[in-house]
Amino acid sequence: MRWSVSVVAEGDRVVTREEVVELADAVAGHGGIASGLGTPRYGAQVVVEADSREDALTRGRELFAEAAERSGLPAWPVVHEDAVSEDEDDEGWDRPA
Hints:
The chain is of the alpha+beta class and 97 residues long. The protein has three helices and four strands.
């Protein structure tokens, strides 16, 4: 099953435009997007194949860490992560939090 996994890391300085562009390039091959410009956070959303939410989160964290490292971003602590399956996404915004 396909999952959309979002991961956000937070640190002690503002993330630059160039860093977000590098991160976006690093996750593009996984249907990814990046965020964080002008904030003390950077994040990415990627698409992974997994059998469960936990497997999807694990794979998403791995891809996120690899992309951040390739982008030259610091290895800040993860402060948020979420995974939504394609089945859940089809249900729309009415699903329980």
